[in-house]
Amino acid sequence: MKYYRHIYLTEGLKKKKDKIIKKLESNKFQVSIHLIVLSGNEKNHLEIINSILLLQPDYPKEDYLVVGIAKSYDDALELVEKITEEVYHETEGTDIRSYILEKEQED
After folding, report:
1. Banded model confidence at residue 25, pLDDT cuts 50, 70, 90
2. Would the CA dihedral through 38, 95, 102, 69 be positive or negative?
3. What is the 3-state secondary structure (H, E, C) of 29-87?
């Protein structure tokens, strides 16, 4: 997995970001953590996945760009809304995928 340089986090996770990422990389159990990732299907923009799915042996986690981390599914939905609003405010469009990939390439 790769992590977005400007990763979005829900309240209360900013200080725990490194610890959560370390646990994700070590396949540690984190039942409430949800990840917002760029969709594997280019017609879609984002997907929300529960971190428990990553514990499955054949789950293709290396293909993901993690854009956000949330404490719950509801928080993940709110974070997607925040991302969408930011993209619309910055670009006056809704091409979230292009916006994120473009920002990832910036210095």
Report:
1. confident
2. negative
3. CCCCCEEEEECCCCCCCEEEEEHHHHHCCCCCHHHCEEEEEECCHHHHHHHHHHHHHHH
Q: What is the pTM of this model?
A: 0.88
b vs e for 72-91, b when ≥16 Cβ sit within 10 Å of the residue's Cβ? eeebbeebbeebeeebeeee
- Residues of the chain with pLDDT > 90, as a percent, come to 64
In tens, the pLDDT along 55-69 reads: 888 777 667 899 999
Q: Residue 50: which of 39, 34, 73, 38 has the closest Cα?
A: 34
Per the CB < 8 A criterion, the answer to whether 73 and 58 are in contact is: no
